[in-house]
Prior knowledge:
The chain has 285 residues and is of the alpha/beta class. The chain has helices at residues 6-12, 49-57, 73-91, 103-114, 135-141, 145-162, 170-175, 179-189, 218-227, 266-282; strands spanning 30-33, 62-63, 96-101, 121-127, 197-203, 244-249.
Amino acid sequence: MKWIEPQKYLKKLKLDEFPQPDIIQLNHPVLLCHGYGSMSMLMKPSPMHDSCLRLRSFGIQAFAPNIVPYATIEIRASQWAERIEQLQEKYGYEKFNVIAHSMGGLDMRYAIHNLGISSSVASLTTVATPHHGTSLAEIVLTTPELLKEKLNELMNWFGENVFPDQKSNAVAAVEQLTRNYIKETFNPSTPNHEDIQYFSISACVGKGTKYPLNPILRLQNQLIYQKEGVNDSFVTADSAVWGEHIGEYSLSHLEQIDLQVSKERKPLVNQMWLDIAKTLKNNSL
């Protein structure tokens, strides 16, 4: 008969002196900038609301405001600049670590270079931003004219109802996400600022990988794969790399901001955001 060893089991009951996760102390607060679209606003206060609360759970001062969901980079950038000014006036902050998802990264690159906010930004981390464009935008623009016009009207109507302070222009925004526009017009005129640190996150799931993807997104994932290669269902892994590359993650474009995430995949989302936070800390930001 095997005797029970009480000490072995008692060790498992031993309490840690500090059982909570370590706080990640940054030198600057975080501003989260969302991308194109507004459907997520029907489910939560801001597209990046959950991401913001996660960063706050790490001990980071973080904010995830809203701006116009369907508009050109220039208009969206001006609104992000306004949000920075509003937070500075309210809390007295000097600089921000900006974390921008998707189109939000292009908005912030434009704002830094053209709108005089470089002194208010310590770093820019982009998550699945199409720094070299996305063929998905080109696919959308090849939609039959009548259908494209009706979709534009619908999205503009919806955008102006959820954010009535600014006129929406869904198609004009998509035109600025094409590979040709980004490579030939945007990138040459929007260089990085020498005093700001740039980081990026890329991702790929579905076609060409072993990672799962919501069936709703499979068609566009496959279409992008045929034209460009592995992608997160909106942006290719290669297009998302800009500045220092933190890593490539097996998360869809929506999972990255806590949309359509299964219980099994939540740890992957948490790890991505934890890696971003630790990168900022390790760089004294």
